[in-house]
Amino acid sequence: MSDSQSSSSSSSSYDSASMGLPPLNVVESHRGTDGSRTFSQALTPMGSRHWRDVVWMLIFLAHLIVIGLALVVFGLNRFRKKDRLNIDRYTVGHLENMDGLTEDFWPLYAVAGGVGIFLGWTWLLWFGSHANQVMKFSVHLLATYLAVISVLCFWGKQLLWGFAFGIAAAFQFLYVISVIDRLPFTMLVLQTAVKMVWDLPEVIRAACIFMLVMLFWLALWSFGVAGIVALSIGDGRHWWLLVVLSVSLFWTGAVLCNVVHVIVSGMVFLVLTHGGREVSSMPPKPLINSLRYAVTTSFGSICYGSLFTAAIRTLRWEIRGLRSKIGNNECLLCCVDFLFHLVEFLVRCFNKFAYVQIAVYGKSFNHSAKDAWELFQSTGVEALVAYDCSGAVLWMGTLLGGLIAGTCAGVWTRIKCPNRVVMVGSTAMLMGMILVGLVTVVVESAVTSIYLCYAQDPLLIYRWDAAFFDQMSEKLHQRLQHRSAGTREVLSHRIDDQIQETVGV
C-alpha cells in the first residue's frame, strides 16, 4: 500500500472512531487515469453480536402470549354458538346484541386483509414503473379521501369520528402545502430507492414471508375481535377492549415492519459498501445473516423502538407543517417552537435510522439512534434528511391503503349490521395499514440506508450511482447555504436589537 493509501486508511479509521462507530475494514482506493476513484475493498463492520434490549423482547413475547390467549377465548365464545364459554355471566345488566356470532363479523375482516394485500403489492409494482403518478396520487388523494369520510361520518351521525377525520384532512392539506417545494427531491430519492429494491429480489421475498406471518396473526386477531364485536356487552366496553387489542396490533405490526426494515437495511448497506451484490468481497448468505440477527440478538431493540418511532415521526411531520404556516403570531409560534424542540429531542432518541445501525452493527436501540443522529449532524446530512419528505409520502400511501381497506369492510358491514360499521371499519383500517406498511417499509429501508451510507462515506453513493450522488450533493450544498443564511439573518436581527436597546438607554 502506498503512503497516500496508508494516510487515507488512517484518516478513515479515525473518522469512524470519532463518530462512535465500530472499527471498519477501510476502503483502499486510488485515482484512475481519468481522475475517477476506484475501490478494491468495501467498508464492512467488524465485531461480535450481543443480545440487546432483552427485557423488551421478553415483554413483547409475553404480551403476544397474553393477547393471543385472550383472542382465542373471545373468538371461541361466540363461534357457532352463543356464549360457548359462559362469558355472558360477567356482563349481567349490559346485555346487547345477543344474536351476534363470531362468524358474522370474521369474513368482514377477511375483506380488509385481502384488500390490504392487493393494495400493498399493487402500490409497489405501480411505484416501480410510475413513481411520479403514485406519489401525486398518494399525496393529493389522501386529504380528499379523509374529507369524504368525514362527511360520511357526519351523515351517519358519528360526530366524533366526523370531527376526527375532518381535522386529519385539514392537517394533511396544510402539510402538503408546506412541503410542496420539496416533492421533486423526494421523488428523486424514492425513485432511486425503488430501483435499488428491484435490484434485490431477495428482500422482496423476505417481505412476502413476513406478510404471511402477519396474515397468520391477523387471522387470529380478527377472530378474537369478531368475537368481541358480537359479545353481549355495552358499546363502551366494546370500545375499551378494541382499543387495547388495536394498540397490541399496532405494536405487533410495527415490530414485524421493523424486522423487515432491519433485514432490508442490512442488505442495502452491504451492497453499497461492497460495490455490488456479485462482488467477491460480499459475505456469504447476507440475507440469511440479516434475518438471523433481526430475529435473535437485535429483536429486543426492534421491539423497543417500535413502540415509539412511528408516533414521534408522525407528530414531527405535523408540527413541521403547522410551524411553517403560523406566520407572525409570536405567542403561538413560541408554543409551537417549544413542541418542535421537544419532538426534535425525542427524534434523537427514537429515529428510523437507528434500524440501519442495528442491522449493521448490532447496537442497542438508543445507542443506534444517538449515533445515527450525531453522524448526520456532524456531516451536515441532517439538513438533507430534514428536507426530504419520502417517509411522509410513504406513510401517506400506507394510511390511504388502510382507509380504503377499512371503507370496503365498512360498506359490507353497513349492509349486514348497520350498528357496527364504525367498530368494524376502524379496526379493519388498522389491518389494512399494517399490510400495506409491510410493503412500503421495503422502500423506506432503502432510503434510510442510502442516507446513512452518504453520511458515512459519500463515495459509496458515488460509485453506485454518480448522477444521483451529484444531485444529492448539490441539494445538500443548497440546504447548508440556506441554513447558513437563516442563521446570519437571526444573528443580524439580534445584534440590531441590542444596538437599539443600547442607544435607547
TrEMBL record:
The keyword S-adenosyl-L-methionine does not apply. It comes from the Eukaryota. One of its GO terms (cellular component) is plasma membrane. Its main location: membrane. Pfam families: Choline_transpo. It is a multi-pass membrane protein. Choline transporter. This is Choline transporter-like protein. It comes from Forsythia ovata.
